[in-house]
Every structure is written in C-alpha cells, then in structure tokens.
Design a protein that fits this description.
By secondary structure, the chain is an alpha+beta fold. The protein contains 16 helices and 9 strands. Among the domains are: 175 residues; 113 residues.
Length: 432
C-alpha cells in the first residue's frame, strides 16, 4: 500500500493539475473570508479604501471585471508559453526530459495563481450582485454594498500578478536553456547519490553474513508479477518486515526501473517452511508499476537522461559538443561521489541483525560501464568531446584504488581505440 501511495504522490508532483487545483480551493476559502469580513464591516467604516477603489457597486463591478479579464488572458498566455517550452524540450532536449518541465513548480504556481485570481474576482462579483437587493439595502440603512476588503485584496492580487508575470517570462527562457536543464538533472543525480538503493534500507551486512543457511533452501518460491510496466517504486522496508515476520530471506530479481511483463520474476523467497499465497500477494504489493520511469527512486533514470543529452548533442543534426561536455562534467561529478563514498552492502539486515534482503549489486563498475560504454559510440566521433572524456577518465583514475583505476583506464583505452577508427587514426595516446 505504501508503494502505491508513493507512486501516486510521484504522479501528482509531475502533473500539471494538482497545484492549480489546490490554489483554486484555497482561493474559494479566501473569497468566503473576505466577503464575510465585508458583511461585518460596511462601507462607512472603510471610506478611505472606498475612495481608492470606488464606492459604488458599478465601479466595483468594472474594477473586478477588468482584473478578471486580464488574469484569464495572462493565464492563457502562460499556458501557451509552457506548452511551447515542453514542445521545445521534446524535440531538442529529448522527450524523457519533458517530465522535468511538468514538475517545475514555477510553471505550476504561475498557472495556478492566474486562474485563482480569475476565480476570486468572479466570486466577489457574485457577492456584489447578491447583496445589492432591496432587502439587503434596507437592512443596512440604505447603504449600497461594496465589498471594500475584497476589492483591496483583488487590487493586491493584480499587483502581485504583474510581478509573477515578469518572473515567469524570465523563468521560461532559463528553463529551456541547455546548461540549466543539464544542471537540474545533474544536481538531482548528485544529491541522490548518497541515498542510492539500498543504502537507506535496513542495516548493511558484512560479506561473511551473506551466506544463506541451508535450512532456508528447503522451500524456494518465486514471486511473479501480476501486471506489466516499469517498476517505479519499491517498498524495501516492507519487504524486510515481511521477511522478518515469516522468517525468510527475500532476493530482489527485478529492480527499480526495469520493465516487466506478466509473470516476470520479481522476488525469490528462501524459507525453511512453505511460503503462503498471502505472503506472495503481500510481496507483490510492495511494487508500484507505471507506464514510464521516474526519478523518485530510479537513479539510473537520471543517468540515462544525461546520456540521452550527450547522444542528441553529438548527433549529426545538432552537432553541439559543448552541451555534451557539460553533461559529461555532471556525470564526472556523480562518479567521483560514487568513488569517494562507501559502497552499500547488497545484503540488508533487520533490527536483530538477521539478513533478510538481498539486493542487486551496483558499484563503480556498474555505473562506469553504463556511462562510458553507452556514450562511447557518440563521443568517439567528436575530437573535442573525446579529449574531454579522456581527461575525465584520467581524473577519475587518479587518487583512487587500484581496482577502480583499472576500470577507468580500460574505458579510456576503449575510447581511444574507437576514436582512432572514427577519426582516421588521429593520435590520442599521449592524452591518457
């Protein structure tokens, strides 16, 4: 259940409707509050405000109608600009990166602000029409009802709207700037490196504790998938609790980000007693699937986004090596953090020190292979990018362990070999 909730929250964050909807709900309460205050304190107690805005219902209607028209017009403009930015991102940066624009809080808040301002003006206009009747006028000594507090709030909203519009126009070109796009993805990747799976799950076990007791091999049972799609969320803490309750060991066969079909093995359960169907169902519910990957728990997805930027930048249609170099710098920062940080154990223990969960092993070798092997085909065709990639590999191999040094040197030699073929035997050996 927790995985399903987290998956829903992730969808909400990347949606374009949630924040504006919440702002619309809030503005309904704001309009109700200001109307109530205006009913308690009439025009004669707020004469100065009345002279500022207008003390007659007709002038109030005109004032609110002007603001409402302006707000809904600007809302349509901002929506068009957002669609333009998303279209640009899909064609130039890559369709996988459009989710980052949908998750942009500035875009969501800007659209929500203008449509909320429009709704606020409509609600105040409605209150003016309702209150200015013969019965209401008679009950207040013939005073015309002009909601001065509400009008003042509407004026403040209009002024803030001008500031929001200027900030939004400044934000849109910045949001589609390639350096800022790469920086946003690279920063998320760098920040999540410390909490990469399974570092935050249970307690790490030593190598000597990973051996599974023969008694747990008596009953092996595979947990199949009951649906299809990308694995978006995995509730690993719940898996450890289930393994502790049923005294078994769970091994993850399908990891976050994998695309699975029906009956794909998700988990392998080692148990000394028969595994119940209820436990199988509970284990299946720890997975949340979707039709696309997201960045909540999927560190590889962010790496693939930067790889896609490099591939597009070095394509013959774009030919932008500086963008590729920028993306390589952020991948370099990520790998440097992986190299310098402690590798989390693939075996995770419960509170009593018993190994309960076996996770996939993703170390420096895994990420170096993912990054440099997948980008080599594109990098080797461009001299500037090849030189920069070799410098990155050289820096990574310096001040690191012998095992990691061999890994990075092997990738450097492979890049030099491919670059010589792609660039007609241009000498690159001295750069290693």
């Amino acid at each position: 259940m927790k995985s399903q909730i987290l998956n829903f929250v992730s969808d909400v964050r990347s949606s374009y409707w949630y924040t504006p909807l919440m702002m619309l709900v809030m503005v309904v309460f704001l309009a109700t509050l200001t109307i109530r205050l205006d009913e308690m304190y009439l025009l004669d107690k707020f004469g100065k405000i009345g002279r500022l805005i207008g003390g007659h219902p007709d002038s109030a209607r005109s004032f609110l109608s002007t603001i409402a028209t302006a707000m809904i017009t600007v809302a349509s403009v901002t929506f068009s600009m957002t669609l333009l930015a998303v279209t640009f991102a899909g064609s130039q940066i890559g369709p996988r990166l459009t989710t980052n624009f949908m998750r942009d809080r500035v875009n969501q808040l800007t659209l929500g602000f203008f449509i909320s301002a429009f709704l606020y003006c409509l609600l105040i206009l409605r209150s003016i029409a309702q209150h200015n009747t013969k019965d209401i006028i008679a009950s207040h000594d013939g005073l015309l009802y002009v909601p001065q507090i509400s009008l003042l709030i509407a004026l403040i909203i209009a002024v803030i709207g001008l500031i929001v519009l200027v900030c939004y126009i400044h934000h849109v070109p910045n949001s589609i700037n390639m350096s800022n796009v790469i920086s946003s993805v690279g920063t998320s990747l760098f920040n999540q490196a410390d909490t990469r799976f399974p570092a935050s799950v249970g307690e790490g076990a030593q190598d000597a504790e990973i051996n599974i007791s023969p008694s747990y091999h008596k009953h092996l049972r595979t947990v199949p998938s009951h649906s299809f799609g990308y694995i978006r969320i995995l509730d690993s803490e719940r898996l450890i609790k289930l393994a502790k309750e049923h005294d078994c060991i769970v091994q993850i066969k399908s990891d976050i980000g994998d695309f699975i079909t029906t009956n794909t093995p998700l988990l392998l359960i080692y148990s000394s007693k028969p595994v119940s169907d209820k436990l199988i169902e509970q284990c299946q519910n720890t997975y949340a699937l979707g039709n696309k990957r997201n960045q909540e728990q999927d560190l590889d997805f962010l790496v693939h986004e930067l790889i896609e930027i490099i591939a597009r930048a070095l394509s013959s249609s774009v030919n932008d090596p500086f963008t590729a170099i920028n993306a390589l710098d952020w991948l370099h920062l990520f790998l440097k953090k992986i190299v310098d940080s402690h590798q989390p154990s693939r075996a995770r223990k419960d509170a009593k020190g018993q190994v309960r969960l076996l996770t996939p092993f993703k170390d420096v070798t895994y990420y170096a292979e993912m990054i440099f092997t997948n980008t080599r085909l594109y990098v080797c065709k461009d001299y500037m990018t090849t030189i920069h990639a070799l410098k990155v590999l050289q820096q990574l191999s310096t001040n690191t362990g012998e095992k990691n040094k061999i890994i990075f040197d092997d990738h450097a030699h492979a890049l030099i070999k491919d670059a010589k073929v792609a660039m007609k035997n241009m000498s690159l050996v001295e750069l290693l």
